[in-house]
Amino acid sequence: MAGEVIAMTGCLPPRLPPGLVAGTFVVVAVLASTLIVYRLYLSPIVRISPNEVHINDPEYFAELNSNTLKLDKYAWYYGFAAAAGSGFGTVSSDLHRIRRNALAKYFSTSNVSHLEPFIQKWVAKLCSRLKEHRQDAKVVDLSNAYRCFAQDSLKDSAASIVSSKGRTLENAKPTVLQEIYDSDLPASEKSVSRFFQEAQTLTIAGTETTSNTLSFTTFYLLSDPTKIELLKRELIDMKRDLSQPLAYFDLQKLPYLAAVITEGLRISDSVAGRLPRVNRNAAMRYKSFEIPAGTAISMSIRDIHFNESIFSSAHEFQPERWLGDAAKKQALEKFMIAFSRGPRNCIGMNLALAEMYLVIGTLFRNFDMRLFDTKEEDLTIAHDFFMPFGPSDSKGLRVKVL
Prior knowledge:
single chain, alpha+beta, CATH 1.10.630.10, three-stranded antiparallel β-sheet, 14 helices
């Protein structure tokens, strides 16, 4: 039913946008459906359910996700996560701020630098497995390899709480969850149930989003030998001794690698679902529309990252768009929202970036690969489970290591 639009007769609350048909509302089976609604109504704001409007206007994203607004999440929508005790699933903006502050130090830039040896360990393990498959001339399922890497690199933090079940937290291995335990949060915020919900959401988010971006980035690089050559030259010129690991600090200085990572984040759709917010205390305004308090307002990262008026040839992988003219790059960065913005932006952003730089930098410096029976359609979103998944018959990103 994805993409089907159902028009229903009903009463609209005062000032709530009705699309262009007075006295009706639109119920949408979401995915590509919001795009269909925009075409039908020729409007950037559409009522997609009785209590939710969806806005497709890149300029409004910063306003909706402003640090100054205290917007709640839409409880009905985020109920899919079944993790109201986690930071991700927290509805109240006030409670979310308290919970996030307990974790912020762990995911800070400075602390991620301390985590780099753990990431490097799993990068080395990934390289070791690729060498084994090269020696045996086996096809590598890189989609799953990247998932394993991302989860392994998390296991010493959030995921390790699973192995701590049955032991007291005082005796557990220090983890990101230890930050919660050691914080000044009240005892009610330190229950085993909440710890498991936090671990679950951090692990899922940190695995699927990172591995998805790595898969897309690798696919598009392997589809264009010119881009591989540019990247390899930059990486080898930085450090010619292939036996020495690359440092994240050094990799961040490489302009073409940075452009590759940024473009991979843009085009990979790490979050496919919309991101509804609710102002329970006051009405919101969008242009001439007044949106009553309590109405869910959703926007989508995908709408912005594939907006042709901002990113020309938006469905093409073009790292070059992030190079050259500084003013042009700055204009694009305004709409680069892979990690969202504002108080609900991705708390694991610094960790994810470190993982991506280290994996892409190391693999494309040390290995030659070619695609094996993999087409763009194998990765393109076909299912919206909040995070994007490809066709059910896809075998993922498969390569041969040369």
